[in-house]
Design brief:
One of its GO terms (molecular function) is oxidoreductase activity. InterPro entries: NAD(P)-bd_dom_sf, Sc_DH/Rdtase_CS, SDR_fam. By secondary structure, the protein is an alpha/beta fold. Helix content is 42%, strand content 18%. Helix 7 (196-216) links the parallel strand 9 and strand 10 (221-228). The radius of gyration is 19 Å and the shape is globular. It binds nicotinamide-adenine-dinucleotide (NAD). Nicotinamide-adenine-dinucleotide is lined by residues 36-37, 39-43, 61-63, 66, 83-86, 111-114, 135, 139, 183, 185, 228, 230-231, 233-236.
């Protein structure tokens, strides 16, 4: 059923359209979603959800085998790309590969991220600050830069044009060249002790999100962010393992209003909603997904 085309660092899976459900075959149009950090945790769950909704997916990650593994879980045509979001040439190549193979980028979820080693500010190391800011802040900035440049070249697509025909202004806002969601964190809204590089990077993601949103609103490009609380992923496991006892105690799920960590699929659902035509007037926002924290 699958035809696997192997190109340098780019893997494509084509699934014949007759394999897809009738709902998908009659979907309004084929859309393309790109997910960085798609090889694990929240990024993987979001790629899977995009595919369930009928999007073709570009799964991008620095860890190539994990990106290919995610690609193998998808039911729609897709592409796995190795990318290091800290490098402009790598991010540009990711966008080029996506457009070459899938035609355009309707949605992008900039999810690649790393945690910082737990230490109070005076004990943090300069190279650790640079490393975390490099992936979490510069990485999001580079993705925005190249994704937006691509989206500006795309024809806007108006969903439900007949419904909005007598409201040209609304129709213009609904005309989407693209929608981008960035992964911030609750730590991008409130301080989280022992994580100053991570906190700084996630506050930065909100600044980048809101700036790009106002710059490109009139071009039909929406930019939003999600701020998840604790989510059960490999990153959360690593953080818990390395945290000092007082920090680990604060992560006890019993202390959270809902009494548990989020599943990555619960964040994925919110990301796909923000990307969708369900919220065409929502841009420059951050959505807290915290189970009430
Ligand atoms: P994860 O570690 O499970 O996945 C992160 C992915 O990013 C990995 O596949 C990794 O290979 C990839 N990655 C790392 N550096 C990269 C680089 N330079 N270029 C490309 N890819 C790279 O983590 P997760 O928990 O799924 O986190 C995803 C995002 O959500 C991160 O930005 C994280 O900060 C954020 N977040 C996570 C939580 C949580 O509790 N897990 C909470 C709030 C926000």
């Amino acid at each position: 059923m699958f035809l696997l085309c192997i190109l340098p660092s780019v893997y494509i899976v084509y699934m014949p359209y007759w394999c897809m459900s009738l709902t998908m075959a009659t979907d309004t149009r084929k859309r393309v979603a790109l997910v960085t950090g798609g090889g694990s945790g929240i990024g993987r769950a979001t790629a899977v959800r995009f595919a369930e909704l009928g999007y073709s997916c570009v799964v991008a990650d620095i860890d190539e085998p994990s990106a290919k593994e995610t690609l193998g879980m998808l039911q729609t045509p897709g592409l796995a790309v190795q990318v290091d979001v800290t490098m402009a040439t790598s991010v540009e190549a990711m966008v080029t590969a996506a457009v070459q193979h899938l035609g355009r980028i309707d949605c992008a979820f900039n999810c690649a991220g790393i945690e910082s080693a737990p230490a109070k500010t005076a004990d943090q190391q300069e190279d650790e600050f640079d490393r975390v800011m490099g992936v979490n802040a510069k990485g999001v900035w580079l993705c925005l830069k190249y994704e937006i440049a691509q989206m500006l070249q795309q024809e806007p697509v108006v969903s439900d044009p007949a419904k909005w025909a007598d409201k040209p202004d609304v129709c213009r806002f609904r005309g989407a060249r693209g929608s981008i969601v960035n992964a911030s964190s609750l730590a991008g809204l409130v301080p989280l002790a022992y994580t100053s590089p991570y906190c700084a990077s996630k506050f930065a993601v909100l600044g980048l999100t809101k700036t790009a949103a106002v710059e490109y609103a009139k071009d039909g490009i929406r930019v939003n962010a999600v701020c998840p609380g604790p989510v059960a992923t490999p990153m959360a496991d690593r953080v818990l393992e390395l945290s000092p006892p007082d920090l680990r105690a604060k992560q006890d799920p019993k202390l959270f209003p809902v009494g548990r960590f989020a599943a990555p699929e619960e964040v994925a659902e919110a990301v796909c909603w923000l990307c969708s035509d369900a919220c065409p007037f929502t841009t420059g926002e951050h959505l807290k997904i915290s189970g009430g924290i």
